Amino acid sequence: MPAFNRRDFLRSAGGAALAAWAHAGLSPLRALAEDPVRTSLPKLVVLYLRGGADPINIVIPWSDPTYRKLRPGLAVGAPGTPGGCLELTKEFGLHPAMGGLHALWGQGLVAPILNVGSPHPTRSHFDAQDFMEYAAPGVRTITEGWLNRWLTATNEGARRDVELRALAAQPLLPRSLRGQFPVLAVPEDKALASMDKFEDLYGGEKKEGGGGMEERPAAGSERILGAGQETIRKLRFLQEILSRPGGRGAAAFPASRLGRQLQGIAQVIKADVGLEVAAADVPGWDHHARQGGPDGQMATMLGDLSSSIAAFTEDLGPDRMKSTLVLVMSEFGRTVAENGNDGTDHGHGGMMLAVGGPVSGGKIYGKWTGLETAQLYEGRDMPVHTDFRLVFAEVLAAHAKLAKSETFFPDWKPAGPMLGFLRNA
Amino acid sequence: MSRVLIAASILAAALALAPAGEPDGGTVAQPGEKLGQREVAFHCLNRLAYGPAPGEVDDLLKRGWMAWALEQLEPGSIDDSALEARIARDCPIMALSDTEAIAAFRPPRPKNRQDLTPEEQLALQREANRLRQSAMEQLRSAVLLRAALSRRQFFEVVANFWRNHFSIDQQKDQCQILGASYEEQVIRKHAFGKFEDMLVASAKHPAMLVYLDNVLSQRPMTERERAMVERALANRKKSEFIQKLERSRGLNENYAREVMELHTVGVRNENIPGGYTQQDVIAVARSLTGWTVSFGEDRVGFTFRKEWHDEDPKSISVLGLKFPGGGGVEEGEEILRRLARHPLTAEFISWKLCRHLVNDVPPEALVRAVAAEYLKTGGDLKAVYTAILFSPEFYSRANFRAKFKTPFEFAVSALRATGSSIEDTTETLRMLEDMGQPIYRCKDPTGYYDQAEAWLDPGTLVYRWTFALRLASGKMRGITLPPDFYKPILDMKPDAMRDALAGAILPGGVDPATARRCGEIVGGDFRPRDRAQELLGTLLGSPTFQEQ
After folding, report:
1. What residues in A contact B238, CB-CB < 8 Å?
2. Which of residues 259-278 of B touch A (CB under 8 A)?
């Protein structure tokens, strides 16, 4: 049972030393942080739009008349028209709420990937999200997320001692980060108060007994104590990073959940403590009704997404952004035609957005075959021309330098060339 | 003499427990050392109940743990009418049939929806959300209330096991409303019955059919039908008939796979000699085509649609059986019952139950013995439970305090240990969500993990500590400590206060770190009530309280 390894590690000499260090307030990671490699360490930030985000009202095929015909109530107009989209190419534009990302597109930092998704036909949110986050469509024996598998596979050498290699900027780990590698899920601030009360009990430096009670430890007590220690150590370290003077920077993040999440992630990255993977969920994209066009519910959410990423980019600055990739994804796309409720229903092919210095941006990726019924999946949904695993494989190979990325995915190998949306591909 | 009594008396002779009274304190018990009587009582309450309620360890010592265990094996003999009256009052959906539940909670669907103003549409949406939320909350509340308050504690422990074994996510489609009848008609109805009856009941329940998509599974289109659809697509003329054909996309293997992988023979037995194969998954899926749900105005429930059913012959290697086809609904039922009686299923179910009740890595000899009992009794669950409860392994020191509570077990045991009353479940349900185990919302058909590993991720303990502190300080909304909970100990000396609380919350002994921390609180400068709260919060959040 390999999952026990990390717990054993806590009890090993190295683990004990780490714990003692943290307890004395001398973070070992500050020492490591001086390693200049850490600034240029590849960093991956995954934003998951939960609910099945509508791809063609994000990257809008504005020059195709079929688009307006199928979406009389939802369509966004041509660039330059009132409420029109922001021009990317002669075929595509960004939703008008996404001014921040449009500016980054101008700097060559944005690569939309179209008609990407799962070969599995499911239109269930749950299955589609699981399959994507495990990177194993239809394979139910895989129970560890793709990012966690990568963290486990590369947990060696200098990376091994890194306290905050990965974190989820939310109280529960997304599936992609679940698994044997101990990723920190960051509780809400209000829950952290309880840590103060339990720091003395779990804190790390064990004073033997002396409590005047009969002590009868069970076999597992040490392990639980170890998990508590690890929790406190990582969270204290995180708190310390977040409270460093000047850590916040001047970038104006939206006062939204996502804005706060990305601001926190940016602060950890700027502390150069070896963070390689961060994830945040962005809920609420299941727009069956009242989705809106240039304005409305989805427009507000897209504005938040775009402004948050733009602020994140500004906050990190060009140097760190050079080695930082933000990948935006969703479990599936939606029906091409609008439904009777000013919304769209679950579809098939979706889109992803890659943002950052490693991106070969200013260009649209993924095969596009238009909106004609005969070109659609089952006559109604965007097709999947690019398996999402091809995108993940490119990220693993080019960005995160995983040797053997060929055997990473169960029952699947990349067929054909990479998309090339990353410079190092 | 009943089978249960025979097993119990054999055990009594074999166990020869250590003499009553406390084992030596202050030392780590040796692995071979027998449990003391008090430890056995605590162990029983930890594993066969959600931990001891105030005074319960002493009660068990007085009346004998075996008499208690035997009573728990006859849940019908224990009066629980007060709780059931409360469930009927607070969670009325639990008493409704599928048809009644859908009628009561399905969102209103006016015919003139297109003509409504945006405000009217919004109001409609709000009403639909309210109904859905109410249906889901009632089920979640009922599960929590029963686990915490039922006197039939062992029944609730095994009900939770089966709820997790035949896991559904109440958020998927109509499961929002049908989850309640699933809990009643599948889980609770059969938790002390025969495994194969529970399996068949789950297979035919609308919630499971929806959750694992069998509701959609149809025989694949014939060549002729496929050609018709393609022609229509080319001509862009889609009659209703063609659209209907299009939707009949054929086989959905989801349920057929899970019923073998998760519910019966077990994923460990895929592609091993004698285990199931992908061809078996397809064959079982074909047998179950047409097992779907009727959502009619007058009746909601299982229905068999003959026109969707695949009548070709099928061969199922794991059962060593061939079916000529044309067996209708009975064919699928026969397959399910045969799967339930399969030796691999006996082994898989026994292994899982032993893992739940005994140890994350259950003793192999015990699993074999329990599986033998399963096969001998045709999967009689009471006999299977008995074989575990009255095995020497159950009472061995190696398995004492050897499991790590899941968040659900932690929260329920904390409520019980303090004798808290529950006026409102909302905050507890939400905190279970924070801790990663919302009731009836496991995303995976696997159910929640039973092993410690899954629950020890960095960060997650913070929410247990929060729960412990809020409960101790009386800040949990809707949860009240008994009015006299602290009163009798406030006048005690600090160390006597600690010993009284520790004896109640951690009657099986405490780990050194907790002992040290409690010592600090005893020596610290506190007002009596603050000290008592501090001690209680610490004990509930301690490593030892996470064990069972």
Report:
1. 379
2. 261, 267, 270
Check the CA dihedral A149-B265-B405-B425 and report its sign: positive
Give the H or E element holding residue A300.
helix A297-321
Q: Which of B385, B264, B348 is nearest to B3 (CA)?
A: B385
Q: Check CB contact under 8 Å for B401 and A171.
A: no
Q: What is the DSSP pairing of strand B291-295 with strand B300-304?
A: antiparallel
Say if B33 is an interface residue toward chain A (CB within 8 Å). Answer: no
- Asked if residue A419 is part of any domain, the answer here is no
Distance between B198 CA and the closest CA of chain A, angstroms: 23
User: Do the domain assignments include residue A65?
Assistant: yes
- Picking from B400, B453, B506 by the largest number of A CB atoms within 10 A of its own CB, the best residue to mutate is B453
Shortest CA distance from B359: residue in chain A: A220
Q: Say what the pTM is.
A: 0.81
ipTM confidence score: 0.83
Q: Is B356 left (phi over 0), alpha (psi -120 to 50) or beta?
A: alpha
Does residue A230 form part of some domain? no
Flag whether residue A402 sits within 8 Å of chain B, measured between CB atoms: no
**CATH number of the CATH domain containing A58:** 3.40.720
How close A11 comes to chain B (CA, Å)? 15
Between chains, do B516 and A234 touch, taking CB under 8 Å as contact? Answer: no
Best of A200, A215, A338 to substitute, by most chain B Cβ atoms within 10 angstroms, is A215
Residue-range definition of the domain harbouring residue A309: 43-188+254-407
Contacts of A193 in chain B (CB under 8 A): 466
Interface contact B513-A206, CB threshold 8 A: yes
From the CB of residue A248, how many other CB atoms can be counted at a distance below 10 Å? 16
- Taking CA atoms, B511 is separated from A209, B275, B410, in Å, by 9, 44, 17
Domains: count for chain A: 1
- Identify the closest residue of chain A to B211 by CA–CA distance: A124
CB < 8 Å to B444, chain A: 130, 143
Inter-chain residue contact B456 with A225, CB threshold 8 Å: no
Residue A127 vs residues A283, A304, A400, B56: alpha-carbon distances, Å? 16, 27, 27, 44
Burial B126-156 (b: 16+ CB within 10 A, else e): eeeeebbeebbbbbbbbbbbbbbbbbbbbbb
Cβ–Cβ gap A227/B458 under 8 Å: yes
Say if the Cβ atoms of B547 and A374 lie within 8 Å. Answer: no
> Residue A103 domain-assigned?
yes
pLDDT in tens, chain B (548 residues): 466 666 666 665 555 454 444 444 444 455 567 899 999 999 999 999 999 999 999 999 999 999 999 999 999 999 999 999 999 999 999 999 999 999 999 888 788 777 888 888 888 888 999 999 999 999 999 999 999 999 999 999 999 999 999 999 999 889 999 999 999 999 999 999 999 999 999 999 999 999 988 998 888 777 787 788 777 766 766 666 666 665 555 778 889 988 998 999 987 777 778 888 888 988 999 999 999 999 998 999 999 999 999 999 999 999 999 999 999 999 999 999 999 999 999 999 999 999 999 999 999 999 999 999 999 999 999 999 999 999 999 999 999 999 999 999 999 999 999 999 999 999 999 999 988 899 999 877 888 888 877 788 788 889 999 999 999 999 999 999 998 899 999 999 999 999 999 999 999 889 999 999 999 999 999 999 999 999 999 999 999 999 99
CB A216 to CB B28 under 8 A? yes
